[in-house]
Amino acid sequence: MIGTAASLNQEAFNLGYYQLTPIERRLLSNILHAYLVIQLDLSMGYACVSTPCSLEDFSQWAWEQFPRLLTCFIYLWTNHRTLIGSCGEHCSKCLIVDGHQKVRRRICAFKDVKVETEEMKELVIGCCRTPVRQSRFCQLHNKETVFSVNEQSKPIVKKKRIIQKFIRRLSNRLNKKNGHLNLTGCRTVKERSDQYVKKCTRSLGIIALVSNCRIITSFSELYRSETLREIINFFAITIRVAGRLSPTCVYDDGCHLVKYIKNHIGTELVETPAMVLLRSTPISVDRSHFPNHVGVFCRKTMDPNKNPRLCCSYFPIVSSF
Ligand SMILES: [Zn+2]
Ligand SMILES: [Zn+2]
Ligand SMILES: [Zn+2]
Predict the structure, then answer these.
(1) 105 alpha carbon – ligand 3 mean position (Å)
(2) Which residues surround ligand 2, an ion (CB under 5 A)?
(3) Which ligand is nearest to the CA of 246?
(4) Distance, CA 79 to ligand 1 centroid (Å)?
């Protein structure tokens, strides 16, 4: 099939044919996606690969297949050292967690979607569906939200705003009193304010786990903000699927993550095997972000230079990592 397409393209190019009908953007992306799905399935060793006959059914099919495909992706790339072959001496020694906030798409404005995971009874993730035309909500939440918006009467909203203003002024005054510097804790929290998240109708980018041998091993889309609970869930899914984690991890907000796990395991976080592994894995802050971390706890435990499992030679390109 690829051979035929290539020869037709070559013929059109040589004879100077031009495009008679405009290319349908969505159709083309569906075709490319179908091709990539077939490629992934074949590389995973499936003898039988199926895609929908009609491209009309593609969106629904892709929605249903996504969890399976993501599982394959995480399993394959986290274990690439044993399944494909080692990249070298330092293959899969360290995983870096980082967010990329530029890939944003329109999502439903309904933020109150809760899921139950093995670790958490209630994790608020927000709705990931695309809104219907001329609405801020998806098909599922379009009717629900019209009712709840009308329900909130204006005086209540006004009162809420006055209280929020008062709290903001109070915290500003307190910060001034403390001389702006909070030397006992790092002020590197990634979470955006609730107000911002509620108003935002775009996703907040993606977060990925990248190995030191430059391979994306796992990824997830963020629908609310980079909250610690979402990051923990992201780790938990990766560990459950892959069955392992690297000997050490690097995260630019590592201190808050480690503290949250230590303080909440056994209470808000169920002590599953994945959580036990994550708790025992040393996490450091990367060198470029470490100067911003001024907290006592952070200086003591998050220093990349003091992590015996982390070595400069893991990152030959960025030596200052
Ligand atoms: Zn590798
Ligand atoms: Zn929705
Ligand atoms: Zn810190």
Answers:
(1) 30
(2) 108, 110, 127, 129, 138, 141
(3) 1
(4) 9
Beta-bridged to residue 95, according to DSSP, are 211, 249
Please state, in angstroms and rounded to a whole number, the distance separating the CA atoms of residues 41 and 50.
9
* 132 Cα–ligand 2 center, Å: 9
Q: How far apart are CA 192 and CA 104, in angstroms?
A: 15
Two structure tokens written together for 287: 């060198």
Chain length of the chain: 321
The predicted-structure confidence for 209-222, as pLDDT tens digits, reads as follows 999 998 999 999 88
Task: State how far the alpha carbon of 243 is from the alpha carbons of 90, 274, 294, 305, in Å.
Answer: 20, 9, 34, 28
Ligand nearest to the CA of 145: 2
Cα of 220 to ligand 3 centre, how many Å?
A: 23
Q: Which residues contact 234 (CB under 8 A, 6 or more apart)?
A: 207, 209, 218, 220
Give the Å distance between the CA of 73 and the centre of ligand 1.
15
Residue 178: which residues within 8 A CB-CB, separation 6 or more? none
Residues 9-47 pLDDT 10s: 888 888 888 777 788 888 888 889 889 999 889 888 888
Helix axes 25-43, 58-78, angle to 10 degrees: 40
Contact (Cβ atoms closer than 8 angstroms) between residue 83 and residue 250: no
pLDDT in tens, 265-321: 988 899 999 999 999 999 999 888 888 888 888 888 888 888 887 777 666 555 445
Residue 158's contacts (CB-CB under 8 Å, 6 or more residues apart) are none
**How does 294-318 read in b/e, with b if 16+ C-beta sit within 10 Å?**
bbebbeebbebeebeebeeebbeee
Domain boundaries, the chain: 86-143+185-314
